[in-house]
């Protein structure tokens, strides 16, 4: 296991304990099995993007926030060579947290989605965020609920209301895109 994977194990366990959640309670909140949560916390399994997203959502965090917590960095400058780069073991997609960890509400995330790869996230991952996707290179097919957006280099999409979403790369080469997230406070 690399340093970031061990940091993710620590971040998941710490976030769970800080919220006084048992493994069983987190499993129920996230939809991730108790066995998988235990394996992640013990660094015995490298979680996929979808699993990490479900856990982060259960904690009230974005995936980027969970990854940043795994790093433990609170600097206001995010140096290119020090930015967290995480690779999904299932799809090979990479996610780079560009924003400094100290940013309270705005996140910039660079994604490289390999040709033919597809990653889906549940509606809950999009609650309390305002997001835009800007395609830097390649082609991106983005399914947002029942709506499909075909995006090419230079295209920028403002996401609508929270819905189940799927990022897929129909092209023959990697697609590189930037996700801009503005974290909104939930209204009671």
Query: Count of DSSP E strands?
Result: 10
Main beta sheet, described?
Answer: 6 strands, antiparallel
> Rg to the nearest angstrom?
16 Å
Q: DSSP strand (E) fraction?
A: 25-35%
Question: Could you walk me through the main structural features you see in this protein, from its secondary elements to its overall organization?
Answer:
The protein has 188 residues and is of the alpha+beta class. It contains 5 helices and 10 strands. It has helices spanning 3-18, 23-30, 34-41, 49-59, 63-71; strands spanning 85-87, 94-97, 106-113, 118-121, 129-137, 139-144, 147-152, 156-158, 165-168, 175-183. The strands form 2 sheets. It has a 6-stranded antiparallel sheet with strand order 1-2-3-10-5-8, with helices on one face. A 4-stranded antiparallel sheet has the order 4-9-6-7. Strand 6 (139-144) and strand 7 (147-152) form a beta hairpin. Helix 1 packs across helix 5.
Brief synopsis:
The chain is α+β, with helices and mostly antiparallel strands and 188 residues long.
What tags apply to this protein structure?
188 residues, globular, 6-stranded antiparallel sheet, alpha+beta, 4-stranded antiparallel sheet
Outline the fold blueprint.
Blueprint: H1 3-18, H2 23-30, H3 34-41, H4 49-59, H5 63-71, E1 85-87, E2 94-97, E3 106-113, E4 118-121, E5 129-137, E6 139-144, E7 147-152, E8 156-158, E9 165-168, E10 175-183
Antiparallel strand pairs: 1-2, 2-3, 3-10, 4-9, 5-8, 5-10, 6-7, 6-9
């Amino acid at each position: 296991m690399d340093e970031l994977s061990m940091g993710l194990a620590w971040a998941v366990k710490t976030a769970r304990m800080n919220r006084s959640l048992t493994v069983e309670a987190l499993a129920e909140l996230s939809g991730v099995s108790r066995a998988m949560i235990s394996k992640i916390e013990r660094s015995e399994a490298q979680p996929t993007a979808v699993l990490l997203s479900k856990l982060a959502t259960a904690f009230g965090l974005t995936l980027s926030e969970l990854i940043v917590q795994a790093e433990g960095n609170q600097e206001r400058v995010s140096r290119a060579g020090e930015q967290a780069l995480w690779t999904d073991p299932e799809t090979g997609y990479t996610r780079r947290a560009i924003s400094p960890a100290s940013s309270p509400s705005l996140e910039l995330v660079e994604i490289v989605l390999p040709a033919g790869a597809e990653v889906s996230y549940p509606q809950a991952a999009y609650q309390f965020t305002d997001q835009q996707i800007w395609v830097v290179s390649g082609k991106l097919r983005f399914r947002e609920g029942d709506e499909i957006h075909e995006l090419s280099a230079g295209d920028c999409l403002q996401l609508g209301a929270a819905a189940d979403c799927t990022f897929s790369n129909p092209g023959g080469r990697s697609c590189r895109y930037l996700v801009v997230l503005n974290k909104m406070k939930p209204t009671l």
